[in-house]
Amino acid sequence: MLLACASGAPASPDPVPSPDLAPEAVVKIVVGALQQNDEPADDAGIATAFRFASPGNQAATGPLARFTAMIRGGYSDMLDFERATYGRMVFQGDEAAQRVTLVQANGRRSTYVFALSKQVGGERDGCWMTDAVVPVAPQDDGLIRT
């Protein structure tokens, strides 16, 4: 599995971290991959999410088999959902966070905050990568409930 930044690399069906990708793009790549988790192969989306995990995140959640079990066990609503809505990206220096709400086919919603950081040094220098994905209470979506 390629973990290095791929600056100027041709488009690939297996996206990799790149200093050319803004944090918003990283979140959309990861969320989109999880939405289509089994395309083009079983758990390809989870593998993409792991590739975009920061080195510290990978050390805490990896290897890939352990990461896959974690996603399937506690974050399964992140797989094969119907649609996603994205909040604004909030920056603090070389760190960023974005709220993402996932909607299942049955209308059930789950919301996560993606925390990212811009890597410094090494082969991932300049790449925005995911440090954590934390479940949170959904924001008011403006719907009237009785």
Keyword list:
single chain, 146 residues, alpha+beta, five-stranded antiparallel beta sheet, DUF4864, DUF4864 domain-containing protein
> How would you sum up the major sheet?
5 strands, antiparallel
**pLDDT below 50 for ≥5 consecutive residues: which ranges?**
1-11, 141-146
Whole-number average pLDDT?
89
Q: Give the structural class.
A: alpha+beta
Number of helices: 4
Architecture overview:
This protein is α+β, with helices and mostly antiparallel strands and 146 residues long. It has a single domain (23-136), classed as Nuclear Transport Factor 2, Chain: A, CATH 3.10.450.50. It contains four helices and five strands, in the order ααααβββββ. Strands 1, 2, 3, 4 and 5 form a five-stranded antiparallel sheet that branches. A hairpin with a 2-residue loop joins strand 2 (90-92) and strand 3. The protein starts with 22 loop residues before the first helix and ends in a 10-residue tail after the last strand. Residues 1-11 and 141-146 have low confidence and may be disordered.
